[in-house]
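The aim of this short unit is practical: by the end, you should be able to scan a pair of folded records and say something sensible about each. We start with the first protein, listed as its amino acid sequence and then its structure tokens.
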Amino acid sequence: MDAITLEHWWTGPDSGPFATWVADRSAADPVHCVRVTEVGRGADGRLVVHTGPVRGAPLPDALERIGQPTVGVAVTLTVPLLDLVVDAVSGAIVLGVARADDVLVDDAGATVLVDHPPDAVDLIGSGIVRTSETAGATALLHAARTVWERVDPRAPCRAVLDAAMAEAIGGGVAEARELLRVVTSTAAPRPVRWDPPRDDFDFVEPTPPPGDDVVARLRGWIVDGVPVPGGGKLPVRRVVVGLVVAAGLAVAGVFAVSGP
């Protein structure tokens, strides 16, 4: 699996949404969202924080690699995200903004949100303006929906789950908790398998005709010699001469026996 490592150096004002995010994330010890590892001040006196590093595959890339997840795999991927949603909408954690590719999936199938704090500037960023960012909880719900949309639509849980997902995206704490309940009740979590999907057509090497082995063996004898016991090889010319001599001796013996 192709993985990337995300880490950032953020700077922003000492008050307002950015400072609130920094204070909340520094006090927490989250498992499924990025952590603040260092806090300090830059040369201009502004607040600077370091987040990460977090390593994994962006969720869209991971889903392409997985193919069609089973219900159990979808539970594994989405329950941590929905736990964060419930915490965020209930005020237990402060999330920044994010997109679907800000959710990373590690080799074990664990999902981690690398959200961006509000009103912040990435000191080592490319300067490219990101589009389609949404509030963290909403981004997580869209990410979870992306996973479940890949599950077999004939799965018995899909109808109820899709309805609960739609309610949660436009709802509040109660709807988020109900969605989490529906997901956890669908199936037990299953490990993520990274085996690549099989090709539509499997190409195999053609089997050589039986005669090809005989021809190849004769060609090898002519070039390298005829194997003899003990690991040695005799040149083909010497073998042919020996056969001719042996045949001559056999004929002479026959005539000698049958003579008067």
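Turning to the second protein, read its sequence before its tokens, just as you did above.
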Amino acid sequence: MTAPVFILAGEPSGDQLAASIMDAVEGRFGKQNWFGIGGPSMQERGLASEAEMAQLSVMGFGAALSAYPRLSALANRLVQRIIEARPRAVITVDAKGFSLRLAARLKQRMAAEGWSAPVIHVVAPTVWAWGAWRAKSVARAVDRLLCLFPFEVDYFTPHRLAAHFIGHPEAFNAALMPRVRDNRDNRNNRSAAKRLLLLPGSRRSEIRRLLPAMHDAHALLAADGTEDSGVAATLVTVPHLRDEVAAVLGNDSGIEIVSGRDAFYQHLHQADAMMAASGTVTLQTALAGVPGVTCYRTSGLSAMIGRRLVRMDRVILPNALLRREVYPFLFQEEATPERLAAHVRAIFAADQMANQMPDKIGTGSGSGNGSGSGSETAGRNADELRALLRGGSDDFETLVANALAPDFGPQD
């Protein structure tokens, strides 16, 4: 009987990425028996989940401290389950705090048992934002690291860790292409009403901390409108948070609430601008060519520690990748309704001016996020990001399978 494969993800974006990893493995190396922790996309592919994925969703230093006993017990239980199952490989996807703790404990148990399996982590911890010295501890915990960004490999190879750039799956996502290629011109031919997309995050803590400011920013923008123009706002959330979002917004916000990936793509293509929580979604909006502003709020303790440890110019992925401000980032007390509205208002004004003077679009020079209208600059950023993140390939699963070949065997 073929040994199973352990795979773990800790949040919705990790669930989608892990599902792509599962597809890549089975496409090259045949059907596998999967167990671990994951969400609906992984379970659709046959994962037997040992616990609810939501148990791993912890944000902020204070929350992590309070959750430590529970997560430590879960890690110990998973280590025991892995030792009993003897999988052919152990794959963890993102959720770096839990994943690396699990990997370190598993390595100790493997040594004690006289048995081993390759421990593979997908999504490099952001040592380039949090401190390069952390790369050494990552190298001690795992055997192979699959990196989504090309510059990450060089942080880990000096520590003799087998690190591979596999591209970023969103750069291959066809659902993010039409807004850049086909819908950019169509957008300017719609009615005068501007379309604003609100993306407050996929965690309850993010909804509580960010959505009130986004709601009030929308109200400020709506007040700018006239009888012939206005702002039509749509908020995209995950299905299990829809009721909580509705409770925060109230009954008369004028903001449409939708949920699910299909709704996200549909409204992304229609948006003139967006407000988003920092995270993977900012890369998706950038690849789709949507201009906007990003923000984040956390506890006072987490903010204080974060300001000391994190390079704020690298928090937003498109900014870090292109080494310029693709999206303004408003952190903590900076994330006010007035500042959010001001950034969106500037995007609307730039697009309106570009529509009135189409011959001037893209003819000037500038710094930061470029010249021309907000949508034109966003489109150029999208093209540059996509080229950077595809790793010279047209297929993400091929890059993944190539990186995993030493652990799963030759091509069938």
